[in-house]
Amino acid sequence: MTMTDSDPITTEVVRNFVISCAQDMNAALWRSAYSPVIYEGRDSAVAIMDPDGNMLGQSTGVPLFVGAIDACVHFVLERYGDDIGPGDIFLMNDSYLQGTHLMDFTAIGPLFHDGKLVGFGAARAHWSDVGAMDPGMPMASSSIFQEGWRLGPTRVCQNYEELPDWMDLIQRNTRMKAAILGDFRAQVSAIRTGERRLGQLLDRIGQETYRASCLNIFEQSQALDRAAIGALTDGTWSREGYLDNDGQSDEPVKVRLTLTIDGEEMIIDMEGSSPPVAGSINCGAVQTQSLLRLAYKTMISPDRAITGGSFSTMTVKIPEDCMFNAKEPYACAWYFTGLGLLADLMIACLSEAMPERATAAHYGDSMVASFFEVDPKKKQWLSVEATAGGWGGSNGSDGESALINLVNGGFRNLPAEVYETKFPVRIEEFSIRPDTGGAGRWRGGNGVVRTYELLEDAGGALWFERSKTPAWGLSGGQPATGPSNTLVLPDGTEETPLKMRARVLPKGTRIITRTGGGGGYGDPLARPFAEIQLDLDRGFLSPDKAKADYGVVVTDGRIDEAASTPRTTF
User: Fold this and answer.
1) Cβ of 13: how many Cβ atoms within 10 Å?
2) pLDDT tens-digit series, residues 170-199
3) What is the pLDDT of residue 334?
4) Which of 422, 222, 426, 387 shows the shortest CA–CA distance to 310?
5) CB contact at 8 A, 533 and 564
6) I want to staple 283 with a disulfide (CB 3.0 to 4.6 A). Which of 114, 316, 335, 481 is the partner?
7) Pairwise CA distance, residues 269 & 529, whole Å
8) How far apart, in whole angstroms, are the C-alpha atoms of residue 211 and residue 203?
9) Is 161 left (phi over 0), alpha (psi -120 to 50) or beta?
10) How far apart are CA 379 and CA 176, in angstroms?
11) What are phi and psi of 41, to 5 degrees?
C-alpha cells in the first residue's frame, strides 16, 4: 500500500464527495436538457476523473456509458496534450473511438483549481438527430456514412465561450436544431457544475490531500477486486447465442463468449463471435469492454463504486475481425443490440463460478419504438423510446417485471402524460404482458404491452430483438416468451414487424409493441401453490399457462390442489 498524506476518514469523505458531485452534475444535465430522451428518459451519464483520466465519481442514467467515458478523456489527452486550458470543452461521437453510435455525444471539460488542472468532467447524452439517412436512429444503414456526422475529440469551447464556427456546424447538420444546441449546453452546464463543486472540496482539504485520497481510492478498489476474483473457483466456461438478424438480412448473428478464472485474473475472450456484419449492429471495442465491465459489476462487488482502480483483474480479448471491434466503414447505429445478449452470456458463465448468485437471462434488448414528424413545413418532433421487459429469476427470488434492460440501467420510459403532451401520439395501453416470464421455482418477470395510436400522419420505426434467443432459464427453469409487435393500419391491415425501417404511417395507425419476459430458475413443479395463486390474482399468469407450466388446475380463479400435480422440493 502506497504511503500517502490522506487518512482513512478523509479518503472516505473524498470518495463520497466525488460521487455526490457527479450526481449534482447529472441533475444539472437533466434539469436543463431540451429533449425528453434526456430529461425524462435519462439517456445520459456523467463522470469526474483525475488529471490522467482515471474514474473517480460517476452518476448514470445509462450505466453502459460509464465504463467507456474514461477512454474518451484519454483520447482528448492524446490529441491535445498540454494544449488544454480553463473553460475548454471537447466534443466527440466517433463510433470507432468511444464505441457507441453517432447519436451519443460525449462532452469533456478540464477542471481547474487555482490555475492547476485537477481533473476532468464528462457528460454523455443522446442527441435526437445527427443528420442520418432517416430521422433519429437509422434502421437500414449499412455504412457509418449513412448514420450522421462524426467527430473525433474536438475543441468546441475555449475560455468558457462557445466557438461560433462549431456551433454553426452542429446546427446545420441536424433536423432538431434548437433541441440539439440546448442539449449540448446542458452537457456543458453539467461540467461547469462539476468544476464548481470539486473546487469547494479542494478549498477545504487542498490539492495534495485530494490527490493522495484519490490514490488510496484506486488502490482499495484494485485490492477488493483481486480479493473477490481470487475467492472464485478457477475454470473456463463458454456460452453462445444468436441475434435475430443484423437488420439487412434474415440470417441469425452469432455471439460467443469464453470466460476464464485463473487465480486473481479474469480473462474474457470473444473468439467465435460473428465478424462485422452488413447491418448496423456492429460495436466499437471500447463500448464492448464497457458492457463487459457492467456485467462484471452486476456479479462482482456490485455495492462498490467504479473507480480508476476497478477492473484491473479483467482482461478482454476481441478478435480484430469481429462485430464487437468495429472499424470504418461498418455501421454502428444499433451497436447495443448484441450487448444485451453478451451481458446475459457473461452472467451465465459467472454463474458457474458463483452459483449462489446465479441468475437466468433477461429479455435483453432495448426494444425501441420511434416516431417523428414527416411534414417539413411543420415544427419537427422526434421520439425515441426504449421499452421495459422481464428479468430472470434467481436462487431465492422471482424476476422483476416491466424493468428496463441491463444495458440501459436507469433509463426510464416516458410517462403517458408527458408523451401525449409532447407528441401527437396517444398511449392507448401500457400494461404487464402476462404469461411471458419463464416458469420456475422462481419465475421470470413478465414483459409489457405498450400501444401507440398516431393522431396525425407520422414517421415510425421499430427495432425489437431476441425472438430467436429469448431469455433462457437455469437449473430446470423454463425459457421466456420473446417479443412480438402488431401494426394495425386504419384500413384494418395488420403487419407483424419486429424491425421496421422508418416509413410514413397514416393518422389512426396503431402500433402494439410487446416485449419479452425473463427466464425461470429451478423446477416449476417446486413452486408453491400459494405463489402461483398470487400470480393468478395479479394477472401475471393465466389459468391455461398455469396448467401447462406448473401442472395446476384452476377452477373459478382458485387452484384445486387435490387435482393438481403434487409439489416437489428444490
Assistant:
1) 17
2) 999 999 999 999 999 999 999 999 999 999
3) 96
4) 222
5) no
6) 335
7) 43
8) 13
9) beta
10) 9
11) -75, -25
Average pLDDT of the chain is 95
Could you report the per-residue pLDDT of 411-467, keeping only the tens digit for each? 888 899 999 999 999 999 999 999 999 999 999 999 999 999 999 999 999 999 999
What residues pair up with 383 in beta bridges, in sequence order?
371
- Read off the pLDDT of residues 475-523 as tens digits, 9 standing for 90 and up: 999 999 999 999 999 999 999 999 999 999 999 999 999 999 999 999 9
Is the pLDDT assigned to residue 64 strictly greater than 90? no
**d(Cα 148, Cα 100) in Å, to the nearest integer?**
13
CA 500 to chain centre: 21
Cis peptide before 276 (omega within 30 of 0): no
* Cell numbers placing 366: 432495448
Nearest to 64 by CA among 516, 518, 404: 404
Question: Alpha-carbon distance 80 to 72, whole Å?
Answer: 12
Q: Give the residue among 134, 252, 242, 149 at the shortest CA–CA distance from 500.
A: 134
C-alpha to C-alpha distance for 505 and 457, rounded to whole angstroms: 6
The CA-atom distances, in angstroms, between 222 and each of 1, 19, 119, 151, 226 are: 11, 18, 20, 33, 6
Task: Give the span between the Cα atoms of 370 and 459, in whole angstroms.
Answer: 8
DSSP letter for each residue of 35-86: SHHHHTT--EEEEEE-TT--EEEEEESSGGGHHHHHHHHHHHHHHHTT---T
Spatial distance between the Cα atoms of 446 and 542, rounded to a whole number of angstroms: 12
Residue 355: Cβ within 10 Å count: 12
What is the rounded distance in angstroms from the CA atom of residue 44 to the CA atom of residue 410? 9
Round to whole Å and give the CA distance between 162 and 88.
9
Residue 154, classed as helix, strand or coil, is: strand
Cβ atoms < 10 Å from Cβ of 203: 10
Does 292 have pLDDT greater than 80? yes
| The one-letter amino acid at 226 | R
